[in-house]
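sry for the spam today, last one i promise. struct tokens for design, 246 residues
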């Protein structure tokens, strides 16, 4: 049976009924059938349209709310939050991932300096004492909406860079032009609540959930090329990974 969203329930399928609803609404959101801000029918009406029990429909909606795709608003109902940027977990830059997926990111350079590295950066990048690095903070937007606040430290003996270059293209593109062949990265992904500064930059409420990423990239000669701390709006961004049994 299908409703006006094109959802179909296959009662002969081994996939649980509630999860079929989740998959159908996810597909509608990612395909653009359900745009950000779209309102869904209430759970009773949706259950009736699909000939499902109300508890089954509520379980599906609860999962979509937990995943950040839907939000319940008093007096409004259930709405689509946004279409997330879903980033595969591999050694690539956010700028490259966005452009490769047909999006047009823009970058605002919030700060830029070329200075002597502090002790923590020297240790992380394994630099000689007294070495200089580029240190900068950028705000990346997609479709005019803030997505990521990124702070990076980059060794300065690979390629020259300035604010204009960083505003026009991705960091990894600049470094590849300088001869860097990225080999691997040490990366840690986590979560935090936005402080006042992060909230103002990312156009969200203080205390909102953010995805965090710390990364140090290494090239094929063994050099630690750059290190960075990035935060992303959790309602607009997620990482994807495949786990393999060993």
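last one done:
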């Amino acid at each position: 049976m299908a409703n006006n969203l094109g959802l179909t329930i296959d009662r002969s399928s081994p996939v649980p009924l509630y999860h079929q609803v989740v998959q159908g609404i996810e597909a509608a959101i990612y395909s653009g059938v359900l745009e950000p801000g779209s309102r869904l029918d209430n759970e009773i009406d949706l259950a009736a349209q699909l000939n499902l029990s109300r508890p089954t429909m509520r379980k599906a909606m609860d999962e979509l709310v937990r995943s950040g795709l839907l939000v319940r608003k008093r007096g409004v109902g259930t709405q689509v939050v946004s279409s997330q940027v879903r980033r595969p977990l591999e050694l690539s830059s956010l700028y490259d991932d966005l452009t490769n997926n047909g999006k047009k990111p823009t970058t605002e350079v919030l700060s830029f300096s070329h200075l002597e590295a502090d002790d923590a950066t020297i240790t992380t990048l394994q630099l000689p004492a007294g070495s200089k690095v580029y240190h900068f903070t950028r705000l990346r937007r997609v479709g005019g909406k803030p997505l990521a606040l990124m702070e990076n430290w980059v060794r300065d003996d690979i390629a020259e860079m300035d604010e204009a270059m960083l505003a026009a293209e991705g960091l990894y593109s600049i470094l590849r032009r300088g001869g860097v062949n990225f080999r691997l990265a040490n990366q840690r992904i986590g979560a935090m609540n936005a402080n006042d500064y992060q909230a103002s930059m990312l156009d969200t409420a203080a205390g909102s959930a953010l995805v965090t990423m710390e990364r140090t990239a290494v090239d094929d000669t063994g050099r630690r090329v750059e290190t960075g701390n990035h935060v992303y709006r959790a309602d607009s961004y997620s990482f994807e990974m495949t786990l393999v049994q060993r």
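The CA atoms of residues 65 and 71 lie 6 Å apart. ok im logging off now
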